[in-house]
Hints:
2 copies of one chain form a homodimer. With 455 residues, chain A is of the alpha/beta class. Chain A is built from 14 helices and 16 strands. Chain A has helices at 2-34, 38-49, 57-72, 135-139, 143-146, 164-184, 224-235, 287-306, 328-339, 366-373, 376-379, 399-402, 418-421, 434-454, and strands at 77-89, 94-100, 108-109, 112-114, 125-132, 150-153, 189-193, 219-222, 239-245, 248-262, 267-277, 313-320, 343-349, 357-363, 386-389, 408-413. In chain A, a hairpin with a 7-residue loop joins strand 2 (94-100) and strand 3 (108-109). Chain A has 2 domains: 24-86 and 251-454, Zn peptidases (Aminopeptidase, 3-Layer(aba) Sandwich), CATH 3.40.630; 93-248, Glucose Oxidase, domain 1, CATH 3.50.30.30. In chain A, the strands form 2 sheets. An 8-stranded mixed beta sheet of chain A has the order 1-10-12-11-13-16-14-15, sandwiched between helices. The two termini of chain A are 33 Å apart. The interface between A and B is medium-sized, with 25 and 25 residues.
Amino acid sequence: MKYTLFVFLIYCFFVQVNAQDSTLIRRIYDEALLRGHAYENLRQLCKDIGPRLSGSSQAQMAVDWSYEKMQSYAFDVVQKQAIKVPHWERGTTESAWFKESTNNAKLQKLQLLALGGSIGTNGLLEAEVIEFKSLSDLQNAKRQSVEGKIVFLNKPMDAAQIQTFKAYGACYAIRGNGAVEASKLGAKAVVIRSLGLPIDKHPHTGSMHYQNDVPKIPAAAISTQDADALSKALSSGKVRLFLELDCRDFTDVDSYNVMAELKGSIYPEQIITIGGHLDSWDTGEGAHDDGAGVIHCLEALRILKELGLKPTHTIRVVFFMNEENGNQGGKQYAEWCLANGEQQIAALESDRGGFAPRGFGLDGPDQFLDLIQRFEPTLRPYDLHIFEKGYGGVDIGPLKEKYPGIPLFGFIPDSQRYFDFHHAPSDVFEAVNKRELELGAAAIASFVYLLDLKL
Amino acid sequence: MKYTLFVFLIYCFFVQVNAQDSTLIRRIYDEALLRGHAYENLRQLCKDIGPRLSGSSQAQMAVDWSYEKMQSYAFDVVQKQAIKVPHWERGTTESAWFKESTNNAKLQKLQLLALGGSIGTNGLLEAEVIEFKSLSDLQNAKRQSVEGKIVFLNKPMDAAQIQTFKAYGACYAIRGNGAVEASKLGAKAVVIRSLGLPIDKHPHTGSMHYQNDVPKIPAAAISTQDADALSKALSSGKVRLFLELDCRDFTDVDSYNVMAELKGSIYPEQIITIGGHLDSWDTGEGAHDDGAGVIHCLEALRILKELGLKPTHTIRVVFFMNEENGNQGGKQYAEWCLANGEQQIAALESDRGGFAPRGFGLDGPDQFLDLIQRFEPTLRPYDLHIFEKGYGGVDIGPLKEKYPGIPLFGFIPDSQRYFDFHHAPSDVFEAVNKRELELGAAAIASFVYLLDLKL
Lengths: 455, 455
């Protein structure tokens, strides 16, 4: 009988705790949806500042805006971490045309963007085009067929993938390694089909790299529509491509990660890091990538403070700089934490856009999977249903090496529209839906609230 | 030992069946995403025809287009069911202004749409405005405060609701019954705050009704932005409103439900009906409401046929006419089925927009809930996770009375953006995302495939 009573009391305790959690999470959502700051803050970041590539004046404006915004919310600590970041600029000339070999063929303009980090063409570059459907096709080609030509890598993202990030992952190496592989065979430049799912006119830029022992050649992405047009032209004869880019690298510059904290009431020395990246590519407005992510996390911290919730552990929002072309923010943050003797106990990243939330993925030990799966009954009424193993994020990734065993969580919104906008001129404020953005902030605030409570 | 073997064989059988199902569902998604017709068909319906209010020439064009499209797919049966539908037209004059009572106050224009079914104003109608925050506030008001005035019903949809349809449901009666309740107290007209979630300039129309013993008064919806402006003006003094509408009813006209079938290979006499509504409001292009729904179902049937799948039962797609202002299509379809001695064994409706799919709701006996919950493991890899009790839809609703116990299924896409577009000028083709639409068609095709197999 005593045992039964004990079990009953334990049961009541948990029901009570869960009921309290549910009430609090309802308050979090009310704050986000009825009195939220997320949409207006994203508007300021996108419209008053715009795209924010590392090393640009807009990136510095974004640092200043973030620092002032965090101070305006009177968080316990607001600080900047000085870091060095790369500085690459697109320049002012970025053009390409192609011409078929038939009589009277006209120049046809291509919509393109240099890939981030590419060298310029040093004037007009002209060569015959050779198309490959994959990186391995290029790698298996003979030097004599490639030498002196412009390589066109035309691999479409696989629209049949339900998770669009898988389709992206399968094409990622084309953007990153295309220039090196083409140059190894003597190509003069490389042009890739944009890593985007729709067939449209927006080219998608992104990072690429060179290799020390391989000559650098220019690299650019053309729109999916133009990739189809160029491929069609190539199917009926030889095609020449004319390319002019004056993008270039400058020396590294000073920049900052910007951060704010709510101090832990019981374990202030134990830190949960949540964040996204403040930098963006230099086209569009970096609205989904990753304006939404930093605004999500800022809004989550604002809501927890506004509701008077005292976290057990310290919760720190970090706006990372330079995720897009170097990840210096993420790398130097992890080093800085360790050098300062900080205890980093968990981290969460939002870097998959401001779409309707679906759940959270875990990169870390299984015990944390058990933990977050216990959140599901509380969060399911908010349309959150994914609590599974997954990926954390680029910015928080370096914490893994410095803090072995740390759980990294990735916020998972619906991914279907992400590659309409990713790294493209279409990634503007208007592409973000107000409710979807607010629900993301509320989902993250709720998850962090539960994580802090149960860790 | 024999028992163990038996259990093992049964287990193998089910594993085998599930593996076959999984392969087929993968093929359904490949067809929808790689070779789909949904997006182009929706473009034709929205751009070549446009909005399709019952009784309009566009509604007839849509009937003809649908019939020809179904015939082009060479389904087993393509037919039209003749029905009578209401015919209301917005007319050519639809304007409103308000004026504050201060000296030198100027007329301020309101963005508005007459509610469907409203009478016109018979010239310019002018009166003082009185605001109510809810229908019950109006019902509790004294006649002397309302008589001779224009009633302004200003209840915002509750943005804190996670399921936006719940927020809509809580405001629905304002649009439907506002005119009757205002007229009972002697009001000259009623103007409502649009049933839309964003604060923007798009008014949202929709159906309303009159009551035989209560004088008819004009009814219109103003945009949420204008509702806020009008409310603000009222908070600082008297406001007069000027309203002119020349909308009117005509006599009922002939129209059609349009349908196509794949005949059942084993039980051809048992019919699974799937559909949406072909008519739309006369603003925007009826893209989400309900172009997406009819295209979903047409595409689902096309995919099943294209893959050579022979359904066990007959699967019939119905494009219902007149869901928006009378539901004559739904009512007369149910009567027609019964009169023809048809066996209707299940029905599914898509009428919640072309957004990313989340699952299916059931309006019907519990045994069918058990059935569809067994679909979850097979459909979960496709991001479908809702399999629960819910609502079927307006068009298939009348089948319930004629076929007691019939399970009605409602397709559930993400609802967050729906009330940005619902019944508004913003509901255009461009508001529908290609992948989200295609995934909806694939989800429905997969669900219907499993339903047919397991029923």
